[in-house]
Amino acid sequence: MSRHLDVLVIESRPGAGATAVADLAAAGHRVVRCHDDGRPAFPCRGVERPGDCPVEEGAADVAVLARDATATDPTPYEAGVGCAVRAGVPVVATADVGSSEAYDPVLAGRADGDTPLVAAAEQAAATGFAPLEQAVTTMLGPLLADHGLDAAEVACRITPEGRTLQVLLELPLPAPLDKAVEQAVAVRALAALRGVRRAHDAISISVQGRPG
User: Fold this and answer.
1) Could you give the domains of the chain?
2) Rounded to two decimals, what is the model's pTM?
3) What is the dihedral of CA 78, 80, 84, 87, to 10 degrees?
């Protein structure tokens, strides 16, 4: 992966994710947490210091769930999983989590013998915006059809940069684009993103043409 990620590590108990933290750091990724070292499960950082929640502040590209192999029911330290899911942050489990009725439905990936944790986290982060990207191209369908274009030919890429969501749209049209078309595409794309859950302050949309 070309960019370094902010990874929210969620543990069933303090220290349960030590190996995951070491692997992520070795790969150049930054680890963020719901709890400061030595603090109890409640209150979390966001409750203790409003404005310091990694999920609410958009400082998490992906979350990693690390649990004791013998853990059964979710522990109070794992409340951040629910926060991540609600915020649209993909959640990946470490290999030793095993199958869990509580978590399997919300996991975006899982480390295993074939996929190391770092690779699983990077893949989940890279594809985490795929549903939104699809929503954008679907919204553009009728507009593009009026110009004889198929929405399937549009490349949409959404990348978080701090608190801004960068949206790049490439249309199979010569550059520079007609301004009216460019503005209409941007307006439709923004409409498709109104329900985005990922924490952000702004959405920046760039529309480019490319040889068809």
Assistant:
1) 6-126 (3.40.50), 130-209 (3.30.70)
2) 0.83
3) 150
